[in-house]
Amino acid sequence: MKKWPLHWKILLGMVLGIGFGIALIQIDGGVDFSTKFIKPFGVIFIKLLKLIAIPLIVASLIKGISDLKNISKFRNIGLRTIVTYVVTTVIAISIGLILVNLLKPGEGIDKATIDTLTATYANDSGIQSKISEANRQQSSGPLQFIEDMVPDNAIGAMSDNSLMLQVILFTIFLGISMLLVGEQQAKPLKKIFDSLNAVVLKMVDLIMLSAPYAVFALLANVVVSSDNPDLLLALLKYAVVVLIGLVLMVSFYSFVIFVYVKKSPFWFLSGISPAQLLAFSTSSSAATLPVTMERVEEHLGVDKEVSSFVLPVGATINMDGTSLYQAVAAVFISQALGFDLDFADQLTIVVTALLASIGSAAVPGAGMVMLVIVLESIGFPADKLAIGLALIFAVDRPLDMCRTVVNVTGDAAVSMFVAKSVGKLGEPKVENWDDNYQEVK
Ligand code: ASP
After folding, report:
1. Domains annotated on the chain, with CATH
2. How high is the pLDDT of residue 142?
3. 2 pLDDT exceeds 60?
């Protein structure tokens, strides 16, 4: 196994995990065995990745900003990043809307299937909790999002992974102030963060050594906890529309990489592939973030001054796969339940799905919470929300895995576009987990 590139090892772990999961379902007590003895290894791996996310963001963002030496450069990168994120998200939503209107997956679904799905899922606690979470988020005012971004306690913000935007804001504040006090005064602090950054990146390398085994555990567990295959089949047309959209979105990134960045799309996809495979296995762009950062910096040559801002911000606010899915799902549910949508409704979907993707947490299933808000914005009857979500619930997990891959790929692609546009795309400098190992052994 030693000479295999990491992505092949991870892929092998995934395939074996799926096979093992299928075998476990056939055995009496197999599901219980997986929950007790397989699942914990996947959970531990995700915990380790999340453990280093905040130190990595803080150290690398401070390093990125203080290397810039000039605040206007940071403003330049910041503006380009936000504009590119909005543009790619609107493109993703438009692809979703065009496909779902052309292929009309909701019109083919018969009444009996709708009844079965409703009976199976409408009262499911998973669906009810998503609706109440959406209502909780909606009851706050329109500026709540900005208010929530500002921490009142730096340590408090760093103690909670879901407060990533607060940590980013505090770190930018700190980094800019370091530029303002001047090189001499900021030097000791900068040295500490530079060193922390190198050490945390080494931790990513070490954690990734266990990735092939962890994805085995994660995928075996996804298989044993998956839904009735007949229900998955009934939703095949809808799932295929989402998947076509996601593939088109990745093709769009590849096209821009080729035409604008002037790099081979295959080189880009192979460089980022371990992060994509982890995104697929964990369904969480937040958990994947440390690996995305490492791959983009070391394997794609994006300068830290760009990646340290673009990627953590992207993991929180840029979710192209999720917004594409929300557009398809909202129209699919409306088609299936005979709720007519006019052009204005479709435009409303573009705007709310864009805002929803900014507001979605980068964790499994978050996209469905925001889907409730998208549905409510087009006047979808509140009493039918649970039925609507029941229609897509069975395939949500597999689609979540796929849309998370696109979310992560989108962040990496945008970091390349922005780096290219500000002249910060260099030659990759790959570091291995065992560099320096002989000296310390
Ligand atoms: N799981 C997705 C992510 O972490 C969010 C979602 O679409 O539910 O990027």
Report:
1. 6-428 (1.10.3860.10)
2. 65
3. no
